[in-house]
């Protein structure tokens, strides 16, 4: 009779949500299809619970509560959790049920479910057992990590009983490399202190220290004679200098070469009747253009020579620096190595060295 009566209350509450219409904010949040689905799920949950399939019933009630989120569906979820021995979860769910604010003109069944949730919450609050870890043998000022069923307990909370479901539990404590575990079974309404003796392990500075990680590799000793790398030795600056001089020389040579050709063409373009050139003889009118053509031509030639030498120096220095960097001062007792030094002048460049 109790089950049938509860089914009638839940069904009546869901039907009441339909009759509330747009006046209820909860009715606006769900559709007729949602309500029909929730009714079917509640009926399915009742059937499963009658067959002693509490896990299946919890699944159905939870689905219905997720759709409706009203006091009647939430109360059935909490009741099933309590029947499964999950008193902590049941009490927590009841707190959420009681937070559902009453709606205007809501069905009486919803108000009755809220009152039932309050009564059940008070009952579960007294039935939930508690476990407290008591530590012995820990030196003052030493940090201890305590956990229950794998969940770490904040140090400040160790003074209180941790609310747990009835049944077996594992309490652990760790100090450095020393660990202690205790298994304990608690019944409803029981408060149990679990003592963890850490002093018997003989805590030492070594045991209090955390396990060391792999040692960092020692730095390699520097070689007896330092070697100048391409990044810090003389080759890299010479390479950049040579390439810069080469680029500038080619640019100047190209510009002056064009000017020389232009002046020569200008001299050739003056008619012989106006003092221009006839065969190999040129008149006074062409002298300034010819002189300018000769001057710029000479400058162009020199610039190209300097540019070519600069490029040769830059490319050679780059490869020498990358492949065989020059060593610094030889170590005592060692034979001095061959040295190569580049040189550059106004008309060219090259290398000199000793072997």
Mean pLDDT: 78
Physical arrangement of strands within the biggest beta sheet: 3-2-5-6
How many structural domains does the protein architecture include?
3
How many H/I helices? Answer: 10
**General shape:** elongated
Q: Describe the sheet with the most strands.
A: 4 strands, antiparallel
What is the fold-level CATH name, i.e. the topology of the largest domain? Serine Threonine Protein Phosphatase 5, Tetratricopeptide repeat
Helix-strand sequence: HHHHHHHEEEEEEEHHEEHEE
Name the poorly predicted regions: 1-5, 15-27, 209-216, 224-232
Going by CATH, the homologous superfamily of the largest domain would be Tetratricopeptide repeat domain
Number of strands: 11
Structural class of the helices, strands and pairings? alpha+beta
Instruction: Report the span from N to C terminus.
Output: 114 Å
Q: Provide the gyration radius in Å.
A: 48 Å
Approximately what portion of the residues adopt beta-strand conformation? 15-25%
């Amino acid at each position: 009779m109790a089950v049938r009566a509860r089914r009638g209350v839940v069904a009546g509450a869901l039907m009441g949500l339909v009759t509330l219409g747009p006046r209820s904010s909860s009715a606006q949040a769900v559709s007729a299809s949602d309500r029909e689905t929730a009714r079917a799920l509640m009926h399915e949950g009742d059937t499963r619970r009658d067959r002693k399939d509490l896990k299946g019933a919890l699944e159905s009630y939870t689905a219905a509560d997720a759709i409706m989120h009203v006091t009647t569906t939430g109360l059935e979820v909490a009741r099933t959790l309590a029947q499964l021995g999950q008193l902590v979860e049941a009490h927590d769910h009841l707190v959420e049920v009681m937070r559902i604010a009453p709606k205007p003109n809501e069905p009486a069944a919803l108000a009755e479910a809220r009152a039932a949730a309050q009564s059940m919450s008070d009952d579960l609050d007294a039935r939930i057992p508690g476990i407290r870890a008591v530590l012995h043998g820990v030196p003052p000022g030493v940090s201890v990590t305590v956990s229950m069923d794998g969940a770490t307990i904040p140090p400040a909370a160790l003074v209180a009983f941790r609310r747990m479901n009835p049944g077996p539990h594992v309490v652990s404590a760790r100090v450095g490399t020393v660990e202690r575990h205790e298994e304990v079974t608690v019944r409803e309404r029981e408060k149990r202190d679990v003592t963890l003796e850490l002093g018997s392990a003989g805590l030492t500075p070594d045991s209090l220290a955390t396990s060391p990680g792999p040692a960092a590799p020692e730095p390699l000793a520097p070689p007896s004679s330092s070697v100048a790398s391409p990044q810090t030795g003389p080759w890299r600056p010479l390479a950049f200098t040579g390439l810069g001089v080469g680029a500038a020389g080619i640019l100047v040579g190209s510009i002056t070469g064009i000017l020389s050709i232009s002046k020569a063409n200008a001299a050739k373009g003056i008619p012989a009747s106006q003092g221009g050139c006839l065969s190999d003889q040129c008149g006074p009118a062409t002298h300034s253009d010819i002189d300018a053509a000769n001057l710029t031509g000479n400058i162009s030639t020199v610039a190209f020579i300097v540019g070519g030498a600069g490029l040769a120096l830059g490319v050679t220095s780059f490869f020498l620096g990358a492949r065989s960097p020059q060593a610094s001062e030889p170590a005592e007792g060692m034979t001095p190595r061959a040295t190569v030094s580049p040189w550059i002048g106004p008309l060219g460049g090259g290398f000199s060295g000793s072997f």
